[in-house]
Write a structure and sequence with these properties.
The longest helix has 27 residues. The radius of gyration is 22 Å and the shape is globular. Helices cover 33% and strands 23% of the residues. Helix 3 packs across helix 12. The strands form three sheets. Strands 6, 7, 8, 9, 10, 11, 12, 13 and 14 form a nine-stranded mixed β-sheet that branches. It has a four-stranded mixed β-sheet with strand order 3-4-5-15. It has a two-stranded antiparallel ribbon with strand order 1-2. By secondary structure, it is α/β, with parallel strands linked by helices. The protein folds into two domains: 75 residues, GMP Synthetase, Chain A, domain 3 (2-Layer Sandwich), CATH 3.30.300.130; 266 residues, Rossmann fold (3-Layer(aba) Sandwich). A hairpin with a 6-residue loop joins strand 12 and strand 13. The chain binds adenosine-5'-diphosphate (ADP). Adenosine-5'-diphosphate binds next to helix 3, strand 12, strand 14 and helix 10.
Length: 376
């Protein structure tokens, strides 16, 4: 696919006219923060605050113009207004800059992360972590800056799946450096809470570990953070879903569990806390024979698609049961990086594309609902 450049985007935008001013939006200097990454285009249109409410058609026009360009996968345009004199200070980019511990309740969590997506499941063992890891790596393959926050206290497996060894380090004795491999950053609750500790769940300890992972880890500026949630839909999971500023959730289910309404429970949990469900991934959807490649629908495959339709959510993709997926992720080299051209990697890449399109739509929706005032 032809790569789209910033120049091409600006050229196209110079054909979009602000009718009230009778001039195009590029000459008017309204286009700011233009980002072009592998076919994903995003920018802000700076407007005077009082004109904001009237300019939705102009925003849409700009978005459609860019989207129509060859090589553009997604286009996200938000309206922003410059704030006058009494500007608020920018949120600190890193937790260690906050200075005095955890006293700042109203500080936004993870201000350097554009979007946080939960990967959840109604129960354990359905391949939630495998999906989270391959999804994260697929998003990174697409050129996005990605972090993985492993919050699965029952089985923190993300570092192992990412091939990360050792313990996280600290440069200043207060903040924690995220760990890195395969181009993504990672932090796991397994590093902060002893796995052997019984009924760990009850403890406020888990919540404080979660908080620490958001506040005290020096995450880079990220496009997206994938959170591997603990399986299940109990109170603990609900609290977590509430504490992390999620933009959306992906629910992983096996075909047979979808029929058992586990996915439905997950859906309801996120609805309760007003987190949009981006869709369902059907994992272990069918059996791909490692010898002959023949496909066998051991479970009634396709259940996710039909069930998702009934529930009013999208099916983001189907991933087969294949020993290669298990061996690669359990061995620290998930299929998306170890065999990126394989059909399984492609399945994850497709899922990642769908997720990112939906995330961008949610981000744009948020901006529309509460236009963010950029402080210049
Ligand atoms: P969860 O996070 O839901 O508990 P995991 O992702 O840890 O589940 O997966 C459980 C086991 O199943 C792991 O050993 C993993 O490698 C394996 N697994 C997950 N998805 C697949 C798949 N599509 N094909 C084969 N094995 C898989």
């Amino acid at each position: 696919m032809a790569q789209i450049s910033e120049q091409q985007v600006l050229e196209a935008l110079s054909g979009v006219v602000d009718e009230e001013k009778n001039q195009d939006i590029v000459s008017l200097g309204m286009v700011s923060g233009l980002q072009v990454k592998q076919g994903h285009v995003a920018f802000a249109l700076q407007v005077e605050p009082e004109r904001g409410p009237r300019l939705e058609p102009l925003r849409k026009k700009a978005e459609q113009t860019v989207h129509a360009l060859p090589g553009v996968l997604t286009a996200t345009v938000v309206l922003t207004a410059e704030r006058q004199a009494a500007a608020e200070p920018k949120p600190a980019p890193h937790a260690h800059d906050h200075g005095h511990g955890h006293g700042h309740q109203d500080e936004p969590l993870l201000p350097q992360v554009r979007a946080i997506v939960a990967v959840a499941s109604g129960k354990g063992g359905v391949g939630k972590s495998t999906t989270a890891v391959n999804l994260a790596l697929a998003l990174a393959v697409r050129g996005l800056k990605v972090g993985v926050l492993d919050a699965d206290i029952y089985g923190p497996s993300i570092p192992r799946m990412l091939g990360i060894k050792g313990q996280p380090t600290s440069s200043d004795g207060r903040s924690i450096n995220p760990m890195r491999n395969h181009g993504v950053e990672c932090m796991s609750i397994g590093f902060l809470v002893e796995e052997e500790m019984p009924i760990i769940w009850r403890g406020p300890m888990v919540m404080s570990a979660l908080e620490q992972m958001m506040k005290d880890v020096r995450w880079s500026p990220l496009d997206i953070m994938v959170v591997d949630m603990p399986p299940g839909t109990g109170d603990a999971q609900l609290t977590m879903a509430q504490r992390v500023p999620l933009i959306g959730a992906v629910i992983v289910s096996t075909p047979q569990d979808i029929a058992l309404a586990d996915a439905r429970k997950g859906l309801n949990m996120f609805r309760k806390v007003n987190v949009p469900v981006l869709g369902i991934v059907e994992n272990m959807s069918y059996f791909a024979c490692p010898h002959c490649g023949e496909r066998t629908d051991i479970f009634s495959h396709g259940g996710a698609r039909a069930e998702a339709e009934l529930l009013g959510v999208d099916c983001l993709g189907e991933v087969p049961l294949d020993i290669v997926i298990r061996e690669t992720s359990d061995g620290g080299n998930p299929i998306v990086v170890s065999d990126p051209a394989s059909p399984h990697a492609k399945a994850y890449l497709d899922i990642a594309d769908k997720v990112w399109v939906k995330v961008e739509a949610e981000l744009a929706e948020r901006e529309r609902a509460a236009p963010r005032i950029l402080v210049q």
